[in-house]
Design a protein that fits this description.
- This protein starts with 14 loop residues before the first strand and ends in a 6-residue tail after the last helix.
- The protein has a domain of 128 residues: Roll (Thiol Ester Dehydrase, Chain A).
- Helix content is 29%, strand content 30%.
- The chain is of the alpha+beta class and 183 residues long.
- The strands form 2 sheets. The chain has a 5-stranded antiparallel beta sheet. It has a two-stranded parallel sheet with strand order 1-7.
- Bound molecules: coenzyme A (COA).
- Coenzyme A binds next to strand 3 and strand 6.
- Keywords: Hydrolase.
- Belongs to the acyl coenzyme A hydrolase family.
- This is Acyl-CoA thioesterase.
Length: 183
């Protein structure tokens, strides 16, 4: 993971957020439950990764791999029979990476209430070529105030990811230089 963002490829035309926004819907089944009888968190994470991957592939026009997933939050349990909607969009783009924001909503099978938000996550995808090497992506063009807010918030998360990684690397180098070795 590069510490300094390289500039986006100016030769690639930008793409609006709406061009790749995607919703994946799924009815939860009994085979997807944990010991408590509610849906296993890992099943929801898989749906989140699937939806985000579809968005990243659409935006970048080719293969994209998950580089990281952070801030996965489960707000409420999902139950068997619930119709789950996983809504994903590109929040931000770098040179070869994209932050995809995902919201998870559940329509309760036994209630006539509007869908409730049950989770959310942010994933970073890297677009890759045939050899698995990072390739340039089109700059995302936020269209609405909500998209612009999400873009700005994604930039904050990107700055923090890079700073945290750099700080940990520096700490490890310092400990190694001091002769401190993990047991
Ligand atoms: C993601 C991957 C392509 C990055 O390759 P790399 O050689 O480290 O390349 P770079 O350092 O140039 O990173 C490419 C981009 O991804 C971003 N990136 C890489 N690792 C990241 C991480 N852990 N978190 C956030 N962003 C990350 C970089 O910041 C860079 O963004 P930019 O081009 O927009 O500035 C590579 O680590 C990989 O193939 N990982 C496995 C992915 C995979 O198989 N996922 C499925 C899980 S089974």
């Amino acid at each position: 993971m590069t510490d300094q963002a390289l500039p986006a490829d100016a030769a690639l035309p930008g793409k609006p957020t709406a061009a790749s926004r995607t919703t994946l819907s799924h009815i939860m089944t009994a085979s997807e439950t944990n010991l408590l009888g509610t849906v296993h968190g890992g099943v929801i994470m898989k749906l989140v990764d699937d939806a985000a991957g579809a968005v990243a592939g659409r935006h970048s026009g080719g293969p994209a791999v998950t580089a990281s997933m952070d801030e996965m939050v489960f707000l409420e349990p999902v139950r068997v029979g619930d119709l789950v909607h996983v809504k994903a969009q590109v929040n931000w783009t770098g040179r070869s990476s994209m932050e995809v924001g995902v919201r998870v909503l559940a329509e309760r099978w036994n209630e006539s209430t509007p869908a409730t938000q049950v989770g959310s996550a942010y994933l970073v995808f890297a677009a890759v070529d045939e050899e698995g090497k990072p390739r340039s992506v089109p700059t995302v063009l936020p269209e609405t105030e909500r998209d612009r807010r999400r873009y700005q918030e994604a930039q904050i998360r990107r700055t923090h990811r890079l700073a945290r990684r750099r700080a940990i690397r520096e700490l490890r180098e310092k400990r190694t230089a001091e002769g401190l070795i993990d047991d």
